[in-house]
Specification:
The protein has seven helices and no strands. By secondary structure, the chain is mainly α. The chain has one domain. Helix 2 packs across helix 7. The radius of gyration is 18 Å and the shape is globular.
Length: 213
Amino acid sequence: MPAASDDDVSRRFVVAAAAEICLGLLGLFLGWWIGPDSRAHVPSLSDAERLSEGIVLGVCLGAVLAAAVFALSALPWRGLKELQELMESRLAGFLHPMTRAELIVLSMAAGLGEELLFRGWLQQGLFELLGAEHNLGMGLLAVLIASLLFGLAHPMTPLYIVLATGMGMVLGAIYWLTGNLLCAIVAHAVYDAVILLKWNHDMNHEARERNAS
């Protein structure tokens, strides 16, 4: 694969980060227009307890999700191997050779943008529409619908849609249980960052081995 110029890489980074931020802006706009407001469940800077809860729980959950994916990818299942190869080829074509800092910023943009839209606006809106506040069944349905739409927004392969839906359900559940959208935002960002940094490390390691040989 021909090496990308610095301008090409910078352009990819800006486009990808802007696309993720636009999802969050869409969630905020829809909240302003028809409700609910995604910001209502993000703790303010003055609320140290809720901020700490969101960051600590989010980091832990994101690390657990990433570890689960690594464990899953080690299973001898052909479908998972094909998905892993497809993801690596697409990541290599679009994200390589972004710097670690760019990958972290992109992960943060994805966590913020996608969670504001899918959990903060969509899931919360479904909760209110279905009257799920005191109804476990309706609450589960709201999480499921929001997670399925989240999965369908990641149409790489049918298996990837299923995995993304499952991740959405975990993020939706933690948001439901804590009422703290920051938990889901941080968990999503940490998960993406760990996955992308691991991929970046593996790509660079393989490149060094090829050059050495």
